[in-house]
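Appendix C reproduces, verbatim, an entry submitted by the partner laboratory led by Prof. M.T., so that reviewers can inspect both the input and the predicted structure.
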Amino acid sequence: MLRRRFLQFLSGGLFSGLTGLFFRKPLFAMQDYGSQGKLVLILENGEKKQLFTFDKSGEYFISVKNFSDLTGLGIFTNIEKRKTVLYVQDTKIKFTADNPFVIINNDQIIQVVLEPFWKEGEIWIAVEELARLLSGYSALKVSYNRATGEVILGNKDINVTRVDVFTKQNGVMVQLSATKKFAEKDLSTKKVNNWFYLEIIGGKLDPKVINRSVSNELITEIQAVQLEQAASVAFKLKNDIIDIHLSSGDGSNDIILNLVTDQQLEKDMKAREDLHEQKKKWLIDTIVIDPGHGGKDPGAVGVGKIKEKDIVLPVALKLGTALKNALPDVNIVYTRDTDVFIPLWQRTKIANQANGKLFVSLHCNSNRSSKFNGFETYFLSSEKDERAKDVVMKENQSIEFEESEDKKRYEGINFVLATLAQNAFIKQSQYLASTVQKKMALKLKPLGMNDRGVKQGPFWVMVGATMPNVLIEMGFISNKFESKLLMQKSTQQKLADSICDGIVKYKTDFESSI
């Protein structure tokens, strides 16, 4: 790259405007530097420090490392390649031994008359050249008094120190580094012909630092002007721009400009369309409600011979109505909406064929002891949870009501293998279970019902559902108090509303993450 730019320079294409110093004869041969001398470095606070120098024919060279040590500027040296980078705030100046070309910020090549040289692991540069480079291309102001031997260091009265142009996937970004935070009202943009202008009220800059040619697909040149009350930075454009996004850098003083062209907009629109289509696949647009048991399968039978199937169906229908009111664009599918028997395997088949995005199976609990009470939510897992053992056995007993041909579907199936398809959804199922359980707690605990928490278990009714799924035990019909509550329409509505709230919460959180 450097060789190509050098050839461009010889042809007059890259370094137009230089003073012609390239053609001056070097003052001495680098291998013949003379005796050691000293210069005085005067810092902005007036402090004086000694600079170690070499002089030859009246030209003083100083160690870049020594200068860095005395001023506190950053430095990096590659001994193998004999290169040194000096960091001056936002500016990088790269020196190479025995090479007259100095690189500023990776994209500007400046020629010096006296080549830097290498001695004892360090780059040495002519002090007059260093003063010219720092004053011309950084926020520092450096003057060299040859007569007195003083190098005076100070800061320019500027607050916009650098402009960079980057090509991004979604367009071209211009970044202005600043030492103060500018309010949005201080920034304005306009486009005139093939120039784009940014005006910064209260901005102060050094045009010599900012002005340069740029190798970019959109911007070819940067020109800055310091006005009395503002700084103006102009960018010469190759192509027309149709949109400008102006913002401040997060957590910094940077001014960020994102420039959009017709071609980039077309790419962005296509990308957004593709992304929208991808996101649509993940949107929760179909929810499957599964009222457990039904028909010849009564489920659990509780106090007063109350049947589980007669509780879960009205709650399921109320849940569907609540979801339709809260999420009118969502399709609601029932595995059953009447008192009929549906085999376990067929329930998830219905869900999959409907392209369901959530599967919610509703049940009531029971126990030989009438003391047990409360509501709980399960997600499918092959893990053994002793707390869930009785519930799992009871719900899986629905298989006994299936026809002999259907029962064969479960023979020889390894449950662990059967639940492998759920691994992709287990985290979502667990989160859905937690949101539903929390919402139920808000409405049911005031009724005196116990929050039994979220659990996991190997339920056959959930196997095969290629979507997040939960099984809800809404209370114990074997408990005298809860059986009365579960028979009441008001409690059933509270159950439906709270489960709906949990599903809406899950949908909102999930879709905001995609």
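The longest helix spans residues 489-512. Additional entries are available on request from the coordinating office.
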